[in-house]
Amino acid sequence: MVAIIFSCSENNDNPQPVTNKPYAWVAGERDSTGYGMILFSADSGNTWVRQGQGSNALKDIDIWDIWAVDESNVWAVCSDNVILKTTDGGQVWIRVEAPANKTGTRLSAISIVNKTNIWISGSGGTVYNSTDNGNTWSMFDTLFFHKGLMQGIWAVTPQMIYVAGGISDNRNYRGFIGYTVDGGMTWDTVFPSDDYNKNEWIGVTSSGNTILVYGGQSHYLFSTDAGLTWKNDSVDAGGGSMKADFNHMIMLSPQTWWGAMDEGHVYLTTDEGKTWIPQETNEGGSYLFGIDTWDGRLALVVGESNGWPNRGPILKSSSGGTTWGTMKVYRSNLAKVSFIK
Question: How far is it, in rounded angstroms, from Cα 244 to Cα 264?
């Protein structure tokens, strides 16, 4: 299926120096001040400072995902079709004009490849791309994405991009997976066996030729051959008939995957999903929505409480998840965390 492209630009790779600084940023919903939450740590997550409070760029928005390209350049996507960026490590945040006036659109996910090739997905079947660090943008055909909530997007390569989410089906939400292998010129869909699209998908990630799609009811779907064939599976996490959702997963290698889930669950596999190791966080009353790691041992997880009042914990492990500690709790729901990529 061919996407409708409203504007195009050439790819412009701009390699940045590799840094060994374990800087991290956290994104979250607005709190009682009315400003979206962006938090920064320069010391591996031990202490945190808030960025952008009082700035018009962050006023009256919730921030759903964040991506740290390097110590200076960080991008975030938000409610109300807002795209944010900073070029000075967060001292100043500015709004970047989106390619369409789609007030009310929730931009849910961001993925950046080659430092300047930016992919964004969200509600209403929204998928944006910029190949020149946000100077110009493309918008793709929302009808191909069924105008659904595209919660996850991931650039496997500059040409291969996967989008995952949910689409309405007689008042129920079913999973949807779309992909392109030519940078968005054409798109196709993945239809898993055994009706594995019956559960809504939340996100997608990859390492090498292994692509992992994850989502509701502890379900996941993966390919070890760059999308040629797929395998279905799930984790027995949660109680009764309702299983905990995989809200966010990262890959340390094609075999090692780490996931943040509902009910305070964190699960790790080192053998491509054959066995899963549950990791105790002592946050059973929280939905964990974001996870990232610096080196496979240092990791951060963020989330929100499942009741009132809002409680957004930041969890840290320095042992590869063997033990977790709560470093900070905010009065705002926290959505995602990003170390420098």
Answer: 9
Report which DSSP code applies to 105.
-
Give 179's contacts (C-beta < 8 A, 6+ positions apart).
Answer: 160, 161, 162, 163, 187, 188, 189, 190, 227
Tokens (6 digits) for 328: 């900070």
Distance, CA of 128 to CA of 148 (rounded, Å)? 14
- What are the start-end ranges of the H helices in 80-212? none
Q: Is the pTM of this model over 0.70?
A: yes
Query: Residue 132 and residue 116: Cα distance in Å, rounded?
Result: 6
pLDDT, tens digit (0-9, with 9 covering 90-100), for 163-199: 999 998 777 789 999 999 999 999 999 999 999 999 9
Going from the N-terminus, what domains does the chain have, and what CATH number goes with each?
24-339 (2.130.10.10)
* pLDDT tens track for 277-304: 999 999 988 999 999 999 999 999 999 9
Q: Is the pLDDT of residue 3 over 80?
A: no
User: Is the Cβ–Cβ distance between 235 and 215 less than 8 Å?
Assistant: no
Which of these, 169, 148, 161, lies nearest to 190 by C-alpha position? 161
Q: Which of 4-8, 37-41, 67-71, 310-314 has the lowest mean pLDDT?
A: 4-8
192-198, long-range: CB within 8 Å, 24+ apart, which pairs?
192/221, 192/230, 192/232, 193/230, 193/232, 194/232, 196/221, 196/232, 198/174
